[in-house]
Amino acid sequence: MGVKSFKEIMTVVRRERRRGKKIVTTNGCFDILHMGHVRNLAKAKSLGDILIVGVNSDKSIKSYKGRNRPIIGEKERAETLAALESVDYVFIFNEETPNGWLAKLKPDVHVKGADRKLSEIVEKDTVAKFGGELVLIPYVKDRSTTRIIKKINKLYS
Is the pTM of this model over 0.70? Predict the structure, then answer.
């Protein structure tokens, strides 16, 4: 359990599938871990046996969130997530989208937060191609890393 390379994750998935386990994946930045993340990860875990979390690398976050993000480095974010009871395995990925690794892992269920519309979920077609289920978990209102950063800036500027 814990933080693994993608190659190690592939080995885990093959082994757990042979054991008849249901594989669930999710992904994200998880820049400043908050209650919304924790609740969503617990819900994701409840949908199967093994929860694997793909964490965006620092490089991939900078490419779409800007030069000031992430706040917390990739190794620390991954280790923090791996310590959560609901999370079985974590790996860091460099791509801007999870489509490449999803096509290889082919999880039974892929989970995203419902803070976006289905049409905005970039991995929906990839998951559909291999017959996986895409589940949107309800958004925890007023809980986001961006909101936390704005509050900190307001309090300390």
Answer: yes
